[in-house]
Amino acid sequence: MRRFILLLLLIFMSANISFAAKIPANMQNYINSTFPKTEFRFDGIIILPDSTLYLPLFPAKPLDMDNISIKSTIPANKTLKDKPEAVIFNNNYVLLKVIEDKNGKKTVISPTDVPEEIRNGLLPQDMLVPRGLIIPENLKGIIGNLNISLDANPVLKVSVPQIKHTNVQTTVTPVPALKNKTFYIATGYSKNIQVVNSESKTPAYALSQNYVPNNMKAFNNQFLLVTSFNSTSLNVISLADEAAIKEILFTTIPDEILIDNDRKIAYISSPGNSSIYIVNLETMTLSKQIKINGMCERLTLSDDGTKIFYADKKTNEIWAIELDNNYLLKDIGKFPNVSRIAFNNNKLYITSRTKNHLAIIDYDTNGLIAELEITAKPVDMTAYDNNLFILGAEGNVIQVINTQTDELTDTIYLNTNGFATNINPVDKTNLAIISDTRASIYCVLDMTKKQIIKVSPIEVPIRTIVVTDKVPKINK
């Protein structure tokens, strides 16, 4: 049975089949004209900027209308701006507002005389049902085969043990760019993802997982993609619901995650299958499998999204995948004990953890430009503008290489007496968080000033950290 299911999965992938609900584009534009920045989630739920929820009903016979307009509302004669309980459009689509009944339970309006468009409509069949939703008896027909039991929407939020502090400051004063941010932290040993407000050093709560999280990335400040040790699934967590809204199955254990925000896709490595998979982030479905050479690790995506670089963990061979050239594989060469790969100014930068060397390769010619002696135990590296930041764990330092001249320009000392492990760039800022597995701190690096501008305490060790804006919750 398992082989049969996996076969079906691969068939669906090759055919690029998607079962996600899709609201017509002109209808999305109409709603956005009244409520800019409305979220049209891939499972069909519509979330207004103030977190008001609407459930769409897909018509049995949709009409192809050039111009979208409202046919009727409940209560009558309302505009979309009034956020009525039901909106019927001229293309026969319907929006039902999630409201609370007199007992405080989530439900939708139950009109005495049910309009035909509502009576014949159907909820998206892969929709994540809002927690505790009750469908009125006279609207049961809109459910179809949708499972609205509580099991369809597992609650991930769990409390964490609170340490009693005696005359100890538990608050943190973040740098302005991190104010009102949320940290999602995987420790490397706990199944729970710790949720820490940037103004605090203690977790507020946690999101439970079935396995210990390995890699995490956020998309569009709305979703958290998580791979886990010993799990063949990629979990998609809605940060507004704090619920797992999708489980994407693989034939082998997925590992690293790369996000291309511009193209709205994710690349998921699967070393055991010598593959990198592409996930469509608009529908949260697998769209392509890229077969590669070897067992991939140390994945890097070029800034323009046209190339992926990786190391083969068995052979130490470095490969490039030209994504815009029919996924052509290019052999870069062998480099010992690769700890990280970066790409900037059409040059590859490759660090060796044991030899403390940085190799600089011209991408077009594959020629060695230079080999530099760098800090001991280089564990991570990131490029920003025309600078390369290399984190050395042994000396707890960051070295800065100018990628135009390929010369060392700065050495930044952390002075933390810890063991720094990762440079974590914060999206849409010039900041990066330097995580530490030994000391109960993290450092904030200003990559423009090339300075550590803040050292803050935190009570959980950081293996992987994702930083997002605070997300309004829709299942309070």
Give structural notes.
The protein is mainly beta and 476 residues long. It has a domain at 2-152. The chain is 6% helix and 42% strand. It has three helices and 37 strands. The protein has helices at residues 2-15, 25-34, 116-119; strands at 39-40, 46-47, 53-57, 70-74, 86-89, 94-97, 99-100, 106-107, 157-158, 181-186, 193-197, 205-207, 213-219, 223-228, 233-238, 243-249, 257-260, 265-270, 275-280, 285-291, 296-301, 307-312, 317-322, 328-334, 338-344, 347-352, 357-362, 368-373, 378-384, 387-392, 397-402, 407-413, 420-425, 431-436, 441-446, 451-457, 464-469. It has a six-stranded antiparallel sheet with strand order 1-2-3-6-5-4, with no helix packed on it. A five-stranded antiparallel sheet has the order 9-12-11-10-37, with no helix packed on it. Strands 13-14-15-16 form a four-stranded antiparallel sheet, with no helix packed on it. The protein is elongated. It starts with a helix and ends in a 7-residue tail after the last strand.
